[in-house]
Sequence to fold (384 residues):
Amino acid sequence: MDRRLFLLGGIAAVSRPRVRLTSVELWPVRATQRTVWLLLRLHSDAGVYGLGEASDAFGIRGTSPANVAEMRTELARQFENLRGRSPFDVEYFRLVTKLDGLLARTVHSALEQAMWDLAGKVLDVPVHSLLGGKIRERLPVYANINRATTLRTPAGFAASAKRAVANGFRALKLAPWDNFVDTEAFVDQGIQCLIAVREAVGEEVEIMTDCHSFFTVPRAIGVAKRLEPVGLSWYEEPVAPERTAETLEIRRAIRQKMAGGEFLFGVRGFEPLCRDKAVHVIMPDVKHCGGVLEMTRIAAMAEIFGVEVAPHNPTGPVSTAASVQLCAGMKNFRTLELQWGEADWRGSLVQPAERFEAGSIGVPDAPGFGITLNEELAREKRMI
Fold:
């Protein structure tokens, strides 16, 4: 199809490319001892493939060889609904696929991403053009310094924060209560970590914190009040986001903005938070929320209620590339997450290499997500 015909609405007069999906392969790439990026390639009979990412499909379980085998089984199950079909059959794929649990939803989201990437490459247009076009050339990005911080003390987090700011980032996030211990001393140390980061980076850098749902309502309110001098840009998931009433109770009792929703699925999953205005910012993840099309619907629903969108994205460069295409035209977009400092070769895993400048990333106009997989590096870092 001629690209100009498509962009001018000529799709009604031109036959859709007859491309059929033929196979899918999983690439488990070990980023660190803790982190494995689960990438997939969706192949077609046109000799073109689409990329998707299914990292964090096992939540706190991590990613073991047994987990990878489990994912391959789920990937094969879902691909049977796509074999021989067109990459444009996104709605069909959602309709016929049973999606119970995080693994199934993450695999589905990754396959759906890859369908969009492949469709854009077949049509020779960026995915953002298929979603209505872009309204911004660059996107603000914040550095999640959590996994890069091995010394989980005030001094350790402060040192990571200084390095991220030196890299050009003007917004940071940390989760100092990971490996939670239910003691006041442990909770207090997390507060001291945030205070130390503020002292290290000054007043001009944004700071966010993720509580990973470890708190009770009273503790969440108490911690937030003690953190007021830090000037947080948002206070993320002090309780599980499915607990909408409790989230709203916390929001009404504190001064900081609230954020959450990183593992929620679909418009229905996010609707209570937005309808009740329990948070100021929702955090759909293209790897878990249903994929590209579903995130556009989630963002549109959030816009109705005056809620901003800051996509959750603490994983690899394929997820980032997909999120960039989504955020390019999202009216209520706020900022995008980057898992900073986890692997120094991260940017080279895709071609052209992922690049961040002055705490932002550009929106490419190359077809699909604008990237291909660096097979040589992926093979070198492959888990199994």
